[in-house]
């Protein structure tokens, strides 16, 4: 298939998501992480209807000594544009923003983003242990010796929000309850049985105020997203989902350098993304938000502008996050119930695209009044302990 010119026409080319896919997810004991990368990549390419020869860009993080070179080699790709920005769970929204900019500027034509992890299987097979921290070098040396773990940092931030704004444990628990309700109709979700607020509150304490169900699950799985220049869209198998705008931001790594525990870097990345997209939070039909912990969903909704600062608790407790709610959030069940194999940010983009295409399936496809499909979605990833954020606005 002859490819289009790499030179942008009339300034900048439009960029579309043309293929998305999941690998096998949940409990996957056999394949290696590389195999999950390959499975997701093949499926995303098949979803696009394009030939693999069009891929000249590649983005990956989290696997290999020289990521993404090692993963690209495994997939048989020789890209001329690469990215391996590693900023935790938000890496995928950040790399999607980089890829979209590169395609728009004519530096690449089609960029494949792919991720895969056997985090659950590795622990079960004793190939690795659970990590309590990200290491003790640099600024972290002043926190790690005192047991300041990843979960405790999120828990401390949640407690601050509770202190400042009166957010309750019941409101935080309702985030987990609604995520599980959304997962109920998702055949790919790892946990689908309903839970109640009381069950969340009475669970095993992990880091006050988080009990077990306030925290994301540990699963295996992978996914892939293919972005391409507008010239390729006529040859794709499905209708495009356009990248309308994106924004990125970093905040802190040392907790003492975080000015306000109740404000995440999504407050900056979201503002930039909405400005570049030319839309507002009121225009958004669905939101896919990184949810390693319930507090992340609540505070990110505030910082993206879906409610005022401090009103997140009242916003989430009224069922607004459900598939048929006012603002469906994490419609696949999110990291709290569906899938969380590590850096989950790429899964947010896959679910957003499937919902905009109308491919979510019976019982979980979001529709607007009159049965119309959603038109605008936001995917907002968070990395570290609110250290980084990437926000991408997508539209049909």
Question: Can you describe this structure?
Answer:
The chain is an alpha/beta fold. Helices cover 31% and strands 17% of the residues. It has twelve helices and eleven strands. The protein has helices at residues 33-48, 69-75, 91-104, 119-124, 150-165, 169-183, 197-201, 266-277, 294-304, 312-316, 334-337, 345-357, and strands at residues 15-22, 57-59, 81-83, 110-117, 205-207, 210-211, 221-229, 241-250, 286-289, 376-383, 388-395. The strands form two sheets. Strands 3-2-4-7-1-8-11-10-9 form a nine-stranded mixed beta sheet, with helices on both faces. A two-stranded antiparallel ribbon has the order 5-6. Strand 10 (376-383) and strand 11 (388-395) form a beta hairpin.
Q: How do you describe this structure in short?
A:
The protein is of the alpha/beta class and 396 residues long. Helix content is 31%, strand content 17%.
SSE order and pairing:
Layout: E1 15-22, H1 33-48, E2 57-59, H2 69-75, E3 81-83, H3 91-104, E4 110-117, H4 119-124, H5 150-165, H6 169-183, H7 197-201, E5 205-207, E6 210-211, E7 221-229, E8 241-250, H8 266-277, E9 286-289, H9 294-304, H10 312-316, H11 334-337, H12 345-357, E10 376-383, E11 388-395
Helix pairs in contact: 6-9, 8-9
Question: What brief labels describe this structure?
Answer:
11 strands, disordered N terminus, 9-stranded mixed sheet, 12 helices, alpha/beta, 396 residues, single chain
User: How would you state the average pLDDT, rounded?
Assistant: 94
Strands, count = 11
- With strands numbered from the N-terminus, the spatial order across the biggest sheet is 3-2-4-7-1-8-11-10-9
Rounded to the nearest angstrom, the distance between the terminal CA atoms is 26 Å
Instruction: Give the CA-based shape.
Output: globular
Q: What is the N-to-C order of secondary-structure elements (H for helix, E for strand)?
A: EHEHEHEHHHHEEEEHEHHHHEE
Share in helix:
25-40%
Uncertain ranges: 1-9
Give me the secondary-structure category.
alpha/beta
Taking Cα atoms only, what radius of gyration do you get, to the nearest Å? 20 Å
Q: Give the strand content.
A: 15-25%
- Count of DSSP-assigned helices: 12
Major sheet: size, sense and barrel closure?
9 strands, mixed
């Amino acid at each position: 298939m002859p490819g289009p010119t790499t030179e942008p026409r009339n300034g900048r080319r439009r960029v579309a998501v043309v293929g998305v896919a999941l690998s096998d997810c949940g409990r996957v004991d056999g394949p290696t992480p590389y195999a999950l990368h390959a499975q997701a990549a093949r499926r995303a390419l098949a979803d696009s209807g394009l030939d693999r020869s069009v891929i000249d860009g590649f983005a990956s993080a989290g696997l290999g000594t020289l990521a993404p070179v090692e993963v690209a080699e495994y997939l048989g790709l020789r890209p001329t544009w690469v990215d391996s920005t590693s900023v935790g769970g938000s890496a995928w929204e950040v790399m999607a923003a980089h890829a979209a900019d590169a395609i728009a500027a004519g530096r690449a034509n089609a960029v494949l983003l792919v991720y895969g992890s056997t985090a659950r299987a590795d622990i079960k097979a004793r190939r690795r242990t659970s990590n309590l921290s990200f290491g003790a070098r640099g600024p972290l040396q002043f926190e790690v010796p005192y047991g300041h773990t990843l979960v405790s940092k999120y828990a401390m931030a949640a407690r601050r929000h509770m202190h400042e704004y009166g957010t309750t444990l019941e409101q935080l628990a309702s985030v987990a309850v609604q995520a599980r309700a959304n997962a109920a109709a998702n055949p790919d979700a790892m946990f689908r049985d309903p839970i109640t607020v009381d069950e969340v509150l009475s669970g095993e304490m992990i880091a006050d105020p988080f009990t077990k169900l306030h925290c994301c699950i540990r699963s295996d799985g992978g996914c892939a997203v293919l972005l391409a220049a507008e010239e390729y869209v006529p040859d794709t198998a499905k209708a495009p989902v356009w990248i309308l705008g994106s924004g990125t931001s970093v905040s802190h790594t040392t907790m003492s350098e975080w000015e306000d525990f109740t404000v995440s870097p999504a407050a900056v990345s979201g503002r930039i993304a909405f400005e570049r997209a030319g839309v507002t939070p009121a225009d958004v039909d669905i939101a896919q938000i990184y949810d390693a912990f319930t507090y992340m969903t609540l505070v990110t909704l505030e910082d993206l502008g879906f409610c005022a600062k401090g009103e997140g608790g009242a916003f989430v407790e009224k069922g607004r996050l459900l598939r048929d709610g006012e603002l469906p959030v994490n419609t696949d069940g999110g990291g709290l119930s569906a899938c969380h194999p590590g850096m989950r940010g790429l899964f947010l983009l896959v679910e957003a695209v499937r919902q905009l295409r109308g491919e979510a399936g019976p019982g979980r496809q979001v529709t607007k009044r009159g049965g119309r499909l959603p038109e605008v979605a936001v995917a907002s990833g968070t990395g570290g302990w609110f250290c980084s954020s990437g926000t991408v606005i997508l539209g049909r």
